[in-house]
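Bench notes, afternoon.
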Amino acid sequence: MIFCSLYSGSSGNSIFVGSENAKILVDAGLPGKKIDEALESIGQSPKELDGIFITHEHTDHIKGVGVISRKYDIPIYANDSTWCAMESGLGKIKEHNIRVMDKRTTVEIKDISVKSFNIPHDAAGPVGYTFFSKGKQASVATDFGTFTEEIRDNIRDSEVILLESNHDIEMLKYGPYPYVLKRRILSEIGHLSNEDCGKAIVDLFSNGKLKNLFLGHLSNTNNHPDLAYQTVINVLNENNIKVNVDLGVAIAERHRPSNYIEF
């Protein structure tokens, strides 16, 4: 399988997942041109995409979806609640490209199985995804305020995971956001902090299959890549997990493709 974060952060998100035969996007939260450029920079053609899987309807996850679907005649997969919430913002989508899936289901795209699972976030029907192909497994789980048992059970056997590490709690508390927004981010349906991300990684690592972990969806206002990385590393060190020996940990970058991995 191929896994690559094209863009990750509060300003826009998109992930490429590929296999020998299938090519998939998870979200397209930037202009279509930016998605095209990112795919081409990693040697992939947007014309060959087999589908776009949507995690939820927030703008930083769907901004370029309609444009890409229309330009290349690509199916869009999302659950009914998400479709209802985002459809008016996508523009005209061809009927055969509207693919409605259940919140907890598995969809087959050539030689990749895509399994969706619920996540706690303040959106209509937010989900994460796990991808299976020929014994390999990868997961995307961002935009959630609590690391739930359902999330853990659906991603714990993955070798590669992109996981939420959205904010530093102190930066958020003393930062410029209004109180209502701070409270939303810190809630159980908000976003995961750096420290809680580290704790989730410890839990996942105990299963023994995780090889590469990417810290994603960092806030531009309430976080910094170095701070997110070091906070997570501190938690792992406290639990005797050696980074780059036991586990690879890296930041999914905001403005360019990163973390390209074949496994």
